[in-house]
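Q: Entry one of two.
A:
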Amino acid sequence: MNRHGHFDGLARLLHWGMAVLILAMLFIGVGMVASVTLRPVLVDLHRPLGALILVLAVIRLANRWRSPPPPLPADMPRLQAFAAKASHWVLYGLMFAMPLLGWTMLSAGGYPVQMVGALQLPALVPHDPTLYAWLRGAHGLLGYTLFAVILLHLAAALYHAWVRRDGVFEAMARKQ
């Protein structure tokens, strides 16, 4: 158990770095759908960033097991504590689900998952247009879900920083 009252340096680096990457991915995803002109460039960014987020999520989860987060304040209402823990697991689930769903979707569509240079990821499923259509819809829906969960996470962080002033925000925001 973390008794220091703050997240370790790697956890903070992964949190803030992945926050930037995930927000960028959400906006790139919207841009891919909205722009015919920019779509090829955005797709070329989206694929390797998705793979990077998946790798970083694995590292982040391993680090969380190695160095657990500090405990929530003892005076936090039970429902809020439950919501905090549940929302973090939802975020972790989405950090894994979104890239895996995208990779599977492209595989089902028969599209190569091109990384940088000649590096290409193997197909996860065989070509199947019906599965591709379903996965594309699911990927979009989960993208909106991720955006909503991030907004709730941000609102909760600001609540801890500005209203409760209980050190929860500071535990991730800076080294103590």
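Q: Entry two of two.
A:
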Amino acid sequence: MKTDISIVIVTYNSQEFIRRCLTSVLENRPRRSHRIVVVDNASSDETASIVRAEFPQVELVCLPENVGFGRGNNAGFEHAPARFYYCHNADAYLQANVLDPAIDLFDADPKLGVVGLPLVFPDFSPQTSAYSASTPLKWALQGLGIGALVKKLVEGNPEGLAARVLGKHRLGRTFVATHAEGGSTDIEQPPAEDVDWVCGAAMIIRDAAIEEVGHAFDPDIFMYGEDEELCLRASRNGWKVKKANVTPVIHEFGWGKSVKASRKVVDLKFDGLRVFIDKTYRDRPISRLAMHAMLRMKYMTWKARSAG
């Protein structure tokens, strides 16, 4: 019989984080039946040794090569079949038992396919964990720097006109929910809210949804874009995607570091998003071309920053 939930943590040279990560998971484990699985992507550091020696209650799967985030999670799902799978980043830390109330949301709605958990930085400032879908309009606005301006307006006045107007539209609702710091947006916070997609750093997926949509994370995407692709594919097949309003998960996400993204990471990000665009917009050629053009401009900016 399947366990209720498998907690899957994909690692790659994660020795800096893995002790705190696993300790937080063990201290805040769900009451439901569960398994905790670390899938190590052929780390060259001590990640696997730390898990093996210090966390005997955690199942360790060592892959012979680095297969990326999505395929690593898929390997964890195959290793520990469950009704639900919780993807938890190696540089993320639970603060409370949020998995039981999150699974309650699934039990209450049989068409709920994916749930994302809220994220914060280590200083507890808000971190975006749910998003509207990537579209030519959204990427164009991002390219114009609108996000930084809106963030300043919302953070400075969470009760103001900008927050209220944006909170009424899907494109801005998740942005306001993240940056208004608890301010009212005309609607009291429900247990969960509908979103287009959620961050894979803290994401729960129903196994029945995976079976219906064909596969979990797209194996053609090494990293970047795989979480959005999965959520949008689930939505197209009639599954709901929501963000749970529970105690946030702390996520490092490069917090407090001045290290630039390497050229390799930049290239992987470009490749992942290129595959995402081709698959998501395969039936909308004009939008696909526009997205590829904007991705190319993003890539040039990323390359310049990595070399600067």
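A: Comment on entry two: Confidence is low (pLDDT under 50) at residues 182-187. The CA atoms of residues 40 and 212 lie 27 Å apart.
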